[in-house]
Amino acid sequence: MADVTLRDVARASGCSVATVSRVLAGTRPVGPETARRVREAAEALGYRPNQAARALRSRSTGTVGLVLPQITNPFYPALVRELTHALHAEGRAVLFADCDDDPKAEAEYIDDLLSRRVDALLVVPADEHRSRDAVAAAAARVPLVLMDRGCGPGIADSVAVDNAAGMALVLAHLAATGRRRVCYLGADGTASAAAERRAA
Description:
- This protein is of the alpha/beta class.
- It has helices spanning 6-13, 17-25, 32-45, 51-58, 75-89, 103-115, 132-139, 163-176, 192-199, and strands at residues 63-68, 93-98, 120-123, 144-147, 157-159.
- It folds into three domains: 6-49, 434 Repressor (Amino-terminal Domain), CATH 1.10.260.40; 60-159, Response regulator (Rossmann fold, 3-Layer(aba) Sandwich); 163-199.
- The chain has a five-stranded parallel β-sheet, sandwiched between helices.
């Protein structure tokens, strides 16, 4: 069965293709009765927008690239879930890559996502220092937000946990319960989050 087009919706609703386009894209106001007829026709026919055609017209693919160091880390599945839900609610899709804690693979995935014309990138860097060049180059091309870990000052916007404050809360809680000898078990990598927790 062929895909339903704007022309099919226009024919079924008795409106012009331009009017159907305006209603479905929400670009210009259309009378409520006309908008209702168009939406009902689109729903009855099972019309779905052609995202590839829309991307060519708008120069926006509606996709966001997400690069993680390792999905097996228990923190990341919950993060991916919330991000995909939030982005889906805004009409965006997520292209996901797991670099397995390898900055070289991370750089390749970032390049691959950029070649797919993602509108933006969300990156949890694999390594604070060795990820810096690829992240900085990508940030010069598309909006990029670092999450959970940094790559040094001025590279990109960042959303992260205050690890020093978090460790202070943990230590205060342990001290309040009478604990005096504390041992830290954690990642021994150079990721900024691990280094901040150890330092705290």
